[in-house]
Specification:
By secondary structure, the chain is mostly helical. It is built from 3 helices and no strands.
């Protein structure tokens, strides 16, 4: 890819209109989420994301063995 092609692609990307992904609203939330519900949601998210990574790192030496 030449430099002119890259610059043309960059200019085209800058000219395009961005489509809004989410509708922002300044209204208050319809449902109030309590602190307990937020804590449960965050805990589940952390376990879902960090759990498998932690398992692999904890058992890394077992995976290295060729038995």
């Amino acid at each position: 890819m030449s430099l002119t092609t890259v610059s043309r692609l960059f200019r085209t990307a800058l000219r395009t209109q961005m489509v809004p992904v989410a509708n922002w609203s300044s209204k208050p939330a319809k449902h109030h989420i309590t602190a307990g519900e937020q804590a449960i949601a965050m805990t589940v998210m952390f376990i879902t994301i960090l759990g498998p990574s932690g398992w692999i790192l904890a058992h890394l030496e077992d995976y290295k063995k060729k038995e």
